[in-house]
Task: structure prediction
Amino acid sequence: MFRPGRTRKIAVIDFGSGCFAHETVYTYIQSRFYRSPEIILGLPYDHQIDMWSLGCVLAELYIGQPLFPGSSEKQQIASFAATLGNPPLPLLQKATRSGLYFNHGGEPLSLVAARGVIRPPLTQPLVDRLPSAPLAFVNFLGRCLDWDPATRITPAEASRHEWIRSRGHCVSRERHHGDHCRTSCHFKSPTTRHSRKVAQTTP
Result:
């Protein structure tokens, strides 16, 4: 967990199952806690799976524990729904494995989320999972944690997001005025470079 006045260095490692976006040969990719919906549901995937994982990692750095710590993919899906609501029905209709997790109406078959806790959809929204987090940060994570990779924030869009442009300076829920914030900084986002390589780890 980040605390005022402390600096952390983060190293991104282990690209053992990385692949290029035009060579997505793996059907089992990404460590479970950071696995994107399209991988679990059986949808085509590309570098947008990394944006989902980025959101999970940033949330974990903020709260000090994994955001979606399911012991199975079924629990992951239930945890996603509890925080993000149910996925768009058209997305499920295109997925080859959606029947394992959702009924024909798009409702989850299981409400047992992480650690065996029963959580109906949207009973634990993202804003409640991130106590005292800045609104810009919550918004950024919400854009990363979009069920649909087609509407999920892209790396280019992320680089222009308010939270990135402020370099993580906004640390409270106070409203922002333009590019300025009325609070001091203690959550600084790293400068990152993005390539189209899908770099994830296996469980």
